[in-house]
Amino acid sequence: MPRGWNRKDERMYEHIKESSEDRGVPEERAEEIAARTVNKQRRQEGRTPNKTTQGTGNPNKGLEARSKAELYNRAKELGVVGRSKMGKDELVKAVRKAR
What we know:
This protein has about 100 residues and is mainly α. The chain folds into 2 domains: about 5-45, no CATH class; about 65-99, no CATH class. The chain has helices at about 5-20, 25-45, 70-80, 90-99. Helix 1 runs antiparallel to helix 2 (about 25-45) and helix 3 runs parallel beside helix 4.
């Protein structure tokens, strides 16, 4: 059982994994689907220690209003080179240029 998961999470994982396998999904992929689903549920409930965002931010907000992590993720999607060494202002400029 992964660190931080409780018994309910483990039961959910097993149930999703078995259901996926019953539908013909390969075991490795079924495990991935189950783990991602459980982790998503934990994130939504606020039970995960990972505070960084996984997304690219609200598209209705300006780039300056987004966090550095959100800008980094957007830069990654756009294929910006050197993004890991950039600050927030540099990421804003790079994302604008890459659009």
